[in-house]
Design goal:
about 280 residues, Oxidized Rhodanese, domain 1, 5-stranded parallel β-sheet, 12 strands, about 25% helix
């Protein structure tokens, strides 16, 4: 029987129970933390049967002007097929920092129309803490998959739409960067990038929707989002370069809110385009 995901996150216990299911595909989407030496690909511990999902070198627009730009539909489809992923696969994604870059990979699948996908809550640290088996080598796909991609364009926001919203105020823009970066109290990790934030955006650091490397409970997240957006506007998730914005997207999905999009270029694009308004 093929497994179907009913939640955007799964526990380490759940994955251990279902790890040998026929259609389960386990992906490691680890990247280095922006502005930090913490984490990264040098970690040799892996969950068994893991395939590497390369966010920094494969699953992006290689010709994009800004980092982590979403690739086109055909390219994404081909690269996912190369990982042996099928239309009926059940994909579980993790990273070695807890929940950091795995939501970016999760969001890519969602935005390309694939929904049988979840993030491992707590990631590799939680798996290891639970005492479960680890290995040192990635698994290589045995054959090409039949995965298909269908881009859901309305889940991706561009800078023109964000700019328009400053006047219209129809959406609630939430920024996953630290409050210090939001207020330009510390420099941006990317050299020569201006500090500050998009006018009328709200600071919601991604660490505020997490606790001990795991996502907070549905009840806690509901309180956070209700306080920010009591009018139930559509959320636009942004950050430095489109990675941690997806943690906020994941948090919204946990509370059952699918009325959101991700500003893919995020602050790196916004602060690089001349004459766009910036607040500090």
């Amino acid at each position: 029987m093929k497994l179907k995901i009913t939640s955007p996150i799964v526990t380490a216990d759940w994955l251990r129970k279902h790890i040998k299911a026929d259609n389960v595909v386990i992906l490691d989407a680890t990247i280095k933390k922006v502005g930090s030496l913490e984490g990264g690909l040098e970690n040799k511990s892996l969950i068994p049967n893991t395939i590497f999902f390369d966010l920094k070198n494969v699953f992006l627009d290689k010709n994009g002007e800004f980092p982590n730009t979403i690739p086109n539909e055909k390219y994404f489809e081909e690269q996912v097929q190369n990982l042996g992923i099928d239309k009926d696969s059940c994909i579980i994604i993790y990273d070695n920092l807890g929940v950091y870059s795995s939501p970016r990979a999760w969001w890519l699948f969602k935005v390309f129309g694939f929904h049988n996908v979840a993030v491992l809550n707590g990631g590799l640290p939680k798996w290891i803490e639970s005492g479960f088996e680890v290995v040192e080598e990635y698994t290589e796909p045995l054959s090409k998959g039949n995965f298909t991609a269908n881009l859901i364009q309305e889940q991706v926001t561009n800078y023109q739409q964000v700019l328009e919203n400053i006047t219209l105020n129809e959406n609630c823009t939430i920024d996953a960067r630290s409050n210090e970066r939001f207020l330009a109290k510390v420099p941006e990790p990317r050299k020569d990038l201006k500090g500050g934030h998009i006018p009328k955006s709200v600071s919601l650091p991604y660490i505020d929707v997490q606790e001990n490397g795991q996502m907070k409970s549905k009840e806690e997240l509901i309180k956070i989002f209700d306080k920010i957006n009591s009018e139930n506007k559509k959320f636009i998730c942004t950050c430095g370069s489109g990675v941690t914005a997806c943690i906020l997207a994941l948090a919204l999905e946990i509370v059952g809110n699918t009325n959101y999009s991700v500003y893919d270029g995020s602050w790196t694009e916004w602060a690089s385009i001349p004459n766009l308004p910036i607040e500090k």
